[in-house]
Design brief:
about 160 residues, mainly alpha, Helicase, Ruva Protein, domain 3
Length: about 160
């Protein structure tokens, strides 16, 4: 009975390694779909054409680059690794989203800063447009009532002319 207690765990471990090895050998390579290729290619710009994403560019060079993306995906590369490969080969200009380093940070910082500054300026302008009306209503001197003497003199002057 004690012999079975030692043989059973060893047998289970041996079977586990045998099954894992068989599954790893029987796996078929992943063939990426067009959607998977276009998802990665849409994040890249054609190095030859101006401002055309790689997934919609019709040149022969772009077709070859899409095939390269398909090949890299089938080899197990991730989208970030493929983008890094293209950036290394052709520069950061092929990336749809510039990397967040160097002066490229300005692309991410300046637009929100300008929007916040614009909102602050509008807020201040609305406050100043509203405040003078309130102050004017409180600070305006009362209009003096026109007396009879004033009207009499005004009528005399008009008669002279």
């Amino acid at each position: 009975m004690k012999r079975w207690l030692w043989i059973l765990p060893i047998l289970l471990i041996a079977l586990t390694f045998g099954v894992v090895t068989a599954q790893a050998q029987s796996g078929t390579p992943h063939t990426p779909t067009d959607d998977e290729v276009n998802a990665v290619a849409g994040q890249l710009y054609c190095p030859v054409c101006e401002n055309i994403p790689l997934d919609v560019c019709g040149t022969q060079a772009c077709a070859q680059w899409r095939d390269l993306v398909r090949e890299k995906l089938s080899q197990g590369y991730t989208a970030d690794e493929i983008k890094a490969y293209f950036a290394e080969q052709y520069g950061d200009r092929v990336l749809a989203e510039p990397p967040r380093r160097g002066l490229n940070w300005l692309v991410y910082i300046l637009p929100p800063a300008f929007i916040l500054a614009g909102l602050f300026i509008l807020f201040q302008a609305f406050r100043t447009w509203r405040i003078p009306e309130a102050e004017q209503a409180q600070a305006s001197p009362p209009v003096p009532e026109v007396g009879d003497e004033y009207l009499r003199r005004l009528e005399e002057e008009l008669k002279k002319r």
